[in-house]
Write a structure and sequence with these properties.
- This is Glycoside hydrolase family 30 protein.
- Keywords: Signal.
- This protein has twelve helices and 33 strands.
- By secondary structure, it is of the alpha/beta class.
- The strands form nine sheets. The protein has an eight-stranded parallel β-sheet. Strands 28, 29, 30, 31, 32 and 33 form a six-stranded antiparallel β-sheet that branches. Strands 12-11-14-15 form a four-stranded antiparallel β-sheet, with no helix packed on it.
- The longest helix is centred in the C-terminal third of the chain and has 15 residues.
- It starts with 10 loop residues before the first helix and ends with a strand.
- The structure holds 2-acetamido-2-deoxy-beta-D-glucopyranose (9 copies).
- One 2-acetamido-2-deoxy-beta-D-glucopyranose (NAG) binds next to α5.
- One 2-acetamido-2-deoxy-beta-D-glucopyranose (NAG) binds next to loops.
């Protein structure tokens, strides 16, 4: 979302509001964005809300966690599993003894190398699984049978108890699992808690099993794709450009903020025909319980409903810190079949509180043609405690996108007892307004897409469709590489190995995905100008040959663990699949 932050004539009067009434250092009654004052005549003041990284401990800890492999299971699922992690951590977990002696005075020590465990349903007491994992391992996938669970809308509590073989110590953890009635209408959408991919069943596959969707689609101007005189031309064109998802902000974000229902039904019927998935936007309804009830009841049976989208930049607007979680809990009670998503705009402002209301967290750092240190519309400096430059705490480079994804993933990894959440990127496809002096080129957009995917974005969006003809086409075309095989098999089959070492050109970002006997490599070159230098990327494994080039220049060659090419164009993007040796 973009706009000049609203700032009315009531500002000065509002300043007299008691400061301690709000949780924020700089309350919403002041001209704030991301908690920082953005207008002159007000002093800089620490916004607060920065993520508090837990201090590392000297002592090693065993951090046992359990999660369902997927956010939901259906009674019709043929297999089901948990993810069990037992890393040695210096942040979270319980202290442990590395084994024990057979008897007092004995010199034979049994080291603590494996953790035996039992997994139980808390409600019925049923034993679901007995097994073991190596100590200091993560991502162990442990199968279990759903037969102990009667399908229902409410989740079941599950616990794990782990001990070393000598049973002298014990470790426990808990999780919740959904086992839902199967579907024969609407859609069910699950997230893979291990690799972040999205899987759907709906009318398109007659509710038979799950298929993967790598979401690639924009926020779209409703007046353009869904005009009130009903014409499917623009929506059809949009789908034919390769986009598989859409988010239509209601009413062009005008104050009323509701869709004209009868009209919107016709468009949604068309989306069903196209199997074009909707992220249903409740940006202005999600803070009102009645409206959530009404809107979820209206649309929850749609076969192309992908996700409920609640807060649009709640951290920028300083919505109540509990607002996203309250909406989340309410929506889950009404419709547990779909994930809840939202976008955060700030780099480091109450991440924990706002992200608590989401299964999927989007970032929307828009770095193109900003002045990162001086606010163009407001005429004041921007820094960690002051000003709004259109991209919070950014440096004004394409890599602001990948840095922001890294930041969010890092915060999430440092929240106790929580697993990872998929991060998606909203790519800048607008400009020539407010903080942004020009519209990105299609090369910049594609570069930001690649940077995002290289940094584990598991879905892409754009603000705003329609953009330039070049961007509309380019973002659709590159997006198709991520949506179909073999690209999606890598993106949803593992996580990226980020930041591969690059020689020849410093400003190249490269990541690798290894699945089976193949490796995909994604390359995004930073400089604007063409270079004739020999570029070489050090791979995390040895490869024997180039299998196929999925996107970009075909000049890549591989020798052992080096992928190289003579010369690289300004902002070049490349995606290559290699055969491992
Ligand atoms: C236990 O000690 C052995 C031998 O020193 C070591 O290799 C291993 O990493 C230790 N395990 C743990 C869980 O600390
Ligand atoms: C646990 O594994 C990490 C890497 O996966 C390794 O760096 C660390 O030394 C291991 N710790 C122990 C105690 O084995
Ligand atoms: C809908 O209205 C727009 C402009 O108001 C016009 O350009 C378009 O032709 C109309 N479409 C139909 C199907 O009437
Ligand atoms: C919530 O929405 C309902 C239904 O649109 C409306 O009647 C009510 O006034 C709203 N409440 C608030 C506090 O805005
Ligand atoms: C959605 O499906 C449920 C279950 O069949 C039904 O009770 C409800 O009326 C349906 N809602 C709509 C809006 O079709
Ligand atoms: C949510 O937070 C607001 C503002 O702090 C508070 O007034 C409200 O009571 C809270 N709501 C709930 C249900 O906790
Ligand atoms: C940002 O604005 C300041 C103040 O006008 C100016 O000195 C600086 O050169 C600008 N930086 C960029 C990157 O445009
Ligand atoms: C940010 O800029 C303002 C205005 O120049 C200044 O008062 C404040 O100290 C700066 N904050 C930081 C963290 O540098
Ligand atoms: C880079 O090379 C391409 C052809 O490979 C050319 O079209 C483009 O103009 C060059 N860009 C610059 C900035 O020289």
């Amino acid at each position: 979302m973009v706009r000049i932050r609203p700032w009315g004539a009531t500002a000065l009067a509002a300043l007299s509001i008691s400061r301690h009434a709000a949780a924020f250092n700089n309350p919403q009654s002041m001209p704030v964005w991301c908690g920082k004052i953005y207008k002159k005549d007000y002093p800089a003041n620490d916004p607060g809300g920065q993520f508090q990284f837990p201090p590392p401990k000297v002592e090693p800890l065993l951090y046992l966690t359990i999660q369902p492999r997927y956010t939901i299971f259906l009674e019709s699922d043929e297999s089901s599993s948990f993810i069990v992690n037992a890393p040695i951590s210096h942040i979270f977990g319980k202290s442990y003894k590395n084994g024990s002696y057979d008897s007092p005075g004995s010199s034979k020590k049994n080291l603590f190398a494996t953790l035996d465990f039992e997994i139980y349903s808390e409600e019925s007491g049923h034993l679901l699984k007995t097994s073991s994992v190596p100590v200091n391992s993560t991502g162990n996938v442990v199968g279990f049978s759903l037969s102990s669970f009667k399908p229902r809308f409410k989740p079941y509590a599950v616990s794990i108890n782990g001990t070393p073989p000598d049973a002298q110590q014990s470790f426990t953890a808990k999780t919740l699992i959904y086992v839902l009635p199967s579907r024969s209408y609407g859609s069910a959408v699950k997230i893979d808690n291990l690799y972040g991919g999205l899987y759907v069943q709906n009318g398109f596959n007659n509710w038979k099993g799950w298929y993967a969707i790598f979401p690639n689609g924009g926020y779209a101007d409703g007046g353009y794709v869904s005009p009130s005189n009903i014409s499917f031309t623009h929506l059809d064109t949009y789908a034919s450009q390769g986009f598989n998802t859409i988010n239509i902000p209601p009413d062009g974000s005008l104050p009323d903020q509701s869709y004209p229902v009868a009209e919107f039904e016709k468009y949604w019927d068309n989306m069903d025909q196209l199997n074009l998935f909707n992220l249903y936007d409740m940006r202005s309804a999600f803070q009102n319980e009645t409206r959530i009830n009404e809107q979820v009841a209206l649309w929850k049976n749609r076969t192309t409903l992908l996700s409920w989208y609640t807060a649009d930049e709640p951290d920028g607007w300083e919505y109540n810190l509990n607002s996203t979680k309250l909406a989340y809990d309410q929506i889950k009670g009404l419709d547990p079949y779909h994930p809840v998503s939202l976008v955060l705009n700030c780099q480091n402002f109450y991440y924990e509180e706002y992200s608590a209301g989401a299964d999927i967290v989007f970032e929307d750092a828009y770095p193109i043609s900003i002045n990162a240190t001086y606010s163009i519309p407001w005429g004041i400096p921007c820094n960690a405690t002051y000003g709004d430059c259109g991209c919070d705490n950014c440096v004004g480079e394409l890599t602001d996108v990948s840095t922001r994804l890294d930041d969010f993933q890092n915060y999430q990894a440092n929240l106790k007892g929580q697993g990872s959440k998929p991060t998606w990127a909203v790519i800048q496809a607008f400009g020539d307004q407010d903080y942004w002096t020009s519209i990105p080129s299609v090369a910049e957009v594609e570069n930001m897409m690649m940077l995002a995917v290289n940094h584990n974005a598991k879905g892409l969006s754009y603000w705003l469709y329609p953009s330039t003809a070049d961007i509309n086409l380019g973002s659709g075309q590159l997006g198709k590489v991520f949506q179909k095989e073999p690209g999606i098999d890598f993106l949803f089959g593992t996580n990226a190995i980020k930041g591969l070492p690059v020689a020849g050109e410093a400003l190249i970002d490269a990541s690798a995905w290894i699945v089976g006997k193949k490796m995909m490599v994604g390359v995004a070159s930073g400089p604007l100008v063409n270079s004739s230098a020999e570029v070489s990327i050090t791979l995390p494994a040895s490869a024997s040959s180039v299998d196929q080039v999925l996107y970009g220049d075909s000049g890549w060659t591989v020798t052992g663990n080096t992928l190289s090419k003579a010369g690289i164009k300004g902002l070049e993007v490349g995606i290559v699949v290699l055969n491992l040796s």
